[in-house]
Amino acid sequence: MKKNIFILGIESSCDDTSVAITCNKKVLSNIVSSQKIHQKYGGVVPELASRCHQKNIVPIASLALKIAKIEKQQLNAIAFTRGPGLLGSLLVGTSFAKSLSLSLKLPLIEINHMRAHVIANFIENNECSAPSFPFLCLTVSGGHTQIILVKSVEDMSLIGQTLDDSAGEAFDKSAKMLGLGYPGGPIIEKKSIGGNPNKFIFTQPKVKDLNFSFSGLKTQIFNFLKLEKEKNPNFIDKNMNHICASIQKTIINILITKLQLAIEKNQIKNIAIAGGVASNKYFREEIKKMEKKLNINSTFPKIEYSTDNAAMIALAGYYKYQKKNFTMLSVSPDCRYKI
């Protein structure tokens, strides 16, 4: 009979405080507390983020255990995000994980946040089967845009990444230019409904190989809005849904184009997407179109496991636990932790 392995996962890389409990590949609880305080600033304020993590992490951990209906003594290990991320935020999660590990005499397992996004595709999911190896994973979030070649849970290699800003940041900054709130991605997606994605055309950047660039696109959008507002002060209000739909299409097209190139170069028929931007419905629809066009197989995590969450950290911890790949208590967070 297969032994049940209970892992408590902690995620605190940015502005979401999350604690989850998994039993093998099944999620028993996954609590995420988003920090709304950053909305009025139009982006994450690192000092405020770390303070909120300190306030939230203990009650969230207690709630995660309660919902999972297990006792602390049943846990087999503590997994936590070591990086990449904001140093202050990572310090809170790392310190809490170390304290739990020490007090409960449990193994401590460090997790790379970006690897965990890939592994989120292996969470037990009634909607979609797990990807088959090898596969390409396009991981897109507020801080990262990467294409990863995945040969196994342990064997992942970075084959493409953004040279400057991420796709998620392009959404956020565009939303800020339009006077919308934060985070910008979900708001632009909502405002795009009913808009004509071909109304306004933005030039896609030309970047070599499988890398990305979004800084030029942000500048292009800024200059476009400035020029149009000079002609008509009400331009944004009158064209909001068309502008949002056009921006969304441009960003997604950049991602899809590079993913297609990666498929051709590596001759791989299995793909997955991950990260916060992977929750965008238009993005998922375009991936499905590409799936039919190229005769490939695509996989998506559930939306709640696409954005930052501790379930993916706990599952990544489960795989490391099986290999007894544990971490020393002297560990420190690494805000530039490479995949």
Folded structure, characterized:
This protein is of the alpha/beta class. The protein has 2 domains: 6-119 and 306-322, 2-Layer Sandwich (Nucleotidyltransferase, domain 5), CATH 3.30.420; 131-300, Nucleotidyltransferase, domain 5 (2-Layer Sandwich), CATH 3.30.420. It contains 9 helices and 10 strands. It has helices at 46-68, 87-104, 113-119, 167-177, 184-191, 215-231, 235-266, 281-294, 310-322; strands spanning 6-11, 16-23, 26-34, 77-83, 108-112, 135-140, 145-150, 156-161, 270-274, 297-299. The chain has a 5-stranded mixed β-sheet, with helices on both faces. It is globular, with a radius of gyration of 20 Å.
Short descriptors:
339 residues; alpha/beta; Nucleotidyltransferase, domain 5; 2 domains; 5-stranded mixed β-sheet
Q: Which value, in Å, is the CA radius of gyration?
A: 20 Å
Total number of helices: 9
Q: Give the percentage of residues in beta strands.
A: 15-25%
Strand segment tally:
10
- Helices and strands, in order, run as EEEHEHEHEEEHHHHEHEH
CATH architecture descriptor of the largest domain: 2-Layer Sandwich
CATH topology of the largest domain: Nucleotidyltransferase, domain 5
CATH secondary-structure class of the largest domain: Alpha Beta
Structural class: alpha/beta
